[in-house]
Design a protein that fits this description.
Blueprint lengths: L1 E8 L3 H12 L4 E5 L5 H5 L2 H18 L15 H25 L3 E4 L1 E4 L12 E4 L5 E11 L3 E3 L12 E2 L1 H4 L8 E5 L3 H12 L3 E6 L10 H13 L3 E4 L1 E11 L2 E8 L2 E7 L1 E4 L3 E3 L13 E2 L2 E2 L12 E3 L10 H15 L14 E3 L4 E6 L2 H6 L4 E7 L4 H6 L5 E7 L5 E8 L6 H9 L4 H6 L9 H9 L8
Parallel strand pairs: 1-2, 1-6, 2-3, 6-19, 8-15, 9-10, 9-15, 10-11
Antiparallel strand pairs: 4-5, 5-6, 7-16, 12-13, 13-14, 17-18, 20-21, 21-24, 22-23, 23-24
Helix pairs in contact: 1-8, 3-4, 3-6
Length: 472
């Protein structure tokens, strides 16, 4: 039996970042991973999907090449080459994580790990039994354990994935040919990203969303603008619409399914259906039944330091059911490892964390939406500034969208920043920093933003909140 200070169950973004932080703090750390280091984010999520989104963005841009003086008479898209590029990027990053494990002297154990209850190996729950691919097993006895087993795509009840006609986002990343048409069930970040990507590839896309609007967690004006721009690109969007799984049937080379919208039924047909209704924590069959760990709404309950009801077991990332974002999992992992090491870290303030959707255009936000601010009793003031007034956006040929800032009329505090437009996922960190530092919009406006840059839109929106915008 091998002993460690900390065993991390799962080598995804949260898990491997936690392990590195633990090694920096002088702890002896092991990571148990059944698949490849990097987890969902690297292999089935963030990175491969963004690689394909870049291909889609470039293809869409080149199709409009005449405007830029580029002849595009013989333009075609090669999915195979785009997939190969995606795989190359993933493999390069995977090798980078493997290098970091070696550099930091972290033990990586390939196998399936399950947490054990109190036993002869440990008086407390938290030892980990690892089943190796060769059939052998071993027991790890750490002083602390971090659960970082991630999540899986949520299944539409009554309609399981078949990998051919009904796909999860994981399976869609392995397509070898593009369908002529696709139904996307779910209008959240994943659904919108896939709708944008497939539309740019020339696929006829229909989004079906049960809630009143797509990107429902974003500010209503952002959601409305994204809806307008997707429809402008011929993406059909049905909101307030419910899929009837029992009506699903195969027709020729495609599928048909009934949708109920406000009491009216219609049948949608397509070659493929992508189900993107969220992800569920992967907590089954990891030994939780042998512990006192509490589960609520399918997720592990933790305190502000990521500790579970078992004082030596922590949980981070998608398994705790909060903001299911890679950068959140990474920082939860750092916090948990610092708590284990006795560092007394400050709890994460989730209100300061940026949210991003990588469609075309992109969406990024931090803080409260306008509706949330009003619901919480703030006297709200808002301002917007359009990208069409920004020289760099016009140079890029991507001038749709705007920056919206929400402030407190009484205190002038910054309450939220919301963006829809070109490369806004790269712009949101300035707003997130302002939110962390409790900066006033006035201070953002006083920051000199270089010209010509897209960041000028944020500066102008901040000035507009006090009627001081220069270019509007």
């Amino acid at each position: 039996m091998e002993t460690f200070d900390v065993v991390v169950l799962g080598g995804g973004t949260g898990g491997y970042v936690a392990a590195i932080r633990g090694a920096q703090l002088g702890l002896r750390v092991a990571v148990v991973e059944q698949g490849k280091l990097g987890g969902t984010c690297l292999h089935q999520g963030c990175i491969p999907s963004k690689a394909l989104l870049r291909s889609a963005e470039l293809f869409a841009t080149v199709k409009e090449g005449d405007v830029f003086g580029i002849a595009t008479s013989d333009l075609r898209f090669d999915l195979g080459k785009a997939m190969a590029r995606k795989a190359q990027i993933v493999e390069q990053l995977h090798k980078g994580i493997q290098y970091l494990m070696k550099k930091n002297h972290i033990t990586v154990i390939e196998g399936y790990g399950r947490i054990m209850g109190p036993s002869i190996f440990s008086p407390m729950a938290g030892a980990v039994r690892v089943e190796r691919p060769d059939g052998d097993s071993e027991i790890l006895s750490p002083k602390a354990t971090i659960i970082a087993t991630g999540s899986r795509p949520r299944v539409l009840p009554g309609l399981p994935f078949d990998g051919v006609r009904v796909l999860s986002s994981d399976e869609a990343l392995q397509l070898t040919t593009l369908p002529a048409s696709a139904i996307i069930v779910g209008g959240g970040a994943i659904g919108v990203e896939w709708a944008s990507m497939l539309a740019d590839f020339g696929v006829q896309v229909t989004i079906v969303e049960a809630l009143p609007r797509i990107l429902v967690q974003e500010d209503e004006e952002i959601s409305a603008e994204m809806t307008r721009l997707l429809k402008k690109r011929k993406v059909a969007i049905l909101t307030g619409a419910a899929i009837d799984p029992s009506s699903y049937r195969v027709e020729g080379n495609g599928i048909a399914i009934r949708v109920n919208k406000e009491g009216s039924e219609q049948v949608l047909t397509a070659e493929m259906m992508l189900v993107a209704i969220g992800r569920e924590p992967r907590i089954d069959d990891i030994g939780l039944e042998a512990t006192q760990i509490k589960i609520e709404r399918g997720a592990i309950v933790v305190d502000a330091t990521m500790r579970t009801a078992e004082k030596n077991i922590y949980a981070i990332g998608d398994v705790i059911g909060g903001m299911q974002l890679a950068h959140v999992a990474a920082h939860e992992g750092i916090l948990a490892m610092e708590a284990i090491a006795g560092e007394h870290p400050d709890p994460l303030n989730y209100a300061n964390i940026a949210r991003c959707t990588y469609g075309r255009p992109e969406v990024a936000s931090v803080g409260l939406t306008e509706a949330q601010a009003r619901e919480q009793g703030y006297t709200v003031k808002t301002a917007k500034f359009p990208f069409k007034a920004i020289g760099k956006a016009l140079v890029y040929g991507e001038a749709d969208g705007f920056v919206k800032i929400i402030g407190d009329q009484e205190t002038n505090d910054l309450l939220g920043v919301h963006m829809v437009g070109p490369h806004v996922t790269d712009l949101i960190s300035e707003a997130a920093l302002a939110h962390v530092l409790d900066a006033a919009p006035f201070e953002i406006g006083q920051t000199i933003h270089p010209h010509p840059t897209l960041t000028e839109a944020l500066g102008e929106a901040a000035l507009a909140l006090d009627g001081r915008a220069i270019h509007s």
